[in-house]
Hints:
Number of domains: 1
Largest sheet: 4 strands, mixed
Order of helices and strands: HEEEEEHEH
Strand content: 25-35%
Shape: globular
Number of strands: 6
Amino acid sequence: MPKSYPHSEQALQNACIEFLQYRQFYVIRMNSGMIRSEYKGKERLIKMGVSGTPDLLCIKPATAIPPSPLMLYWMEIKLPGKKSTPIQKAKQDELRSLGCKVFEIHSLEELADAIK
């Protein structure tokens, strides 16, 4: 039975990052979204990243023994029962059309299956 992450998507994302790092992946959190900032006494919103970009870029380095090529994966992390938004799905399709491996992950078990 998949482990539940009732508190937040962030808790599941952190567990996925730890799982991937344990398996020798280099993981980059993409952090798309907005942040608040103040400039000359005025509050501003600053856009970070590209809308719809998956949460994680995961890189598995090439190895000589056993022989294995460099592998790149994009992971969109969602709580069980949640789905990607239309803009996220469009970005995932765009990345797939470029030959990337893209997964929507709802549990560590799904993540383990995706990187086999």
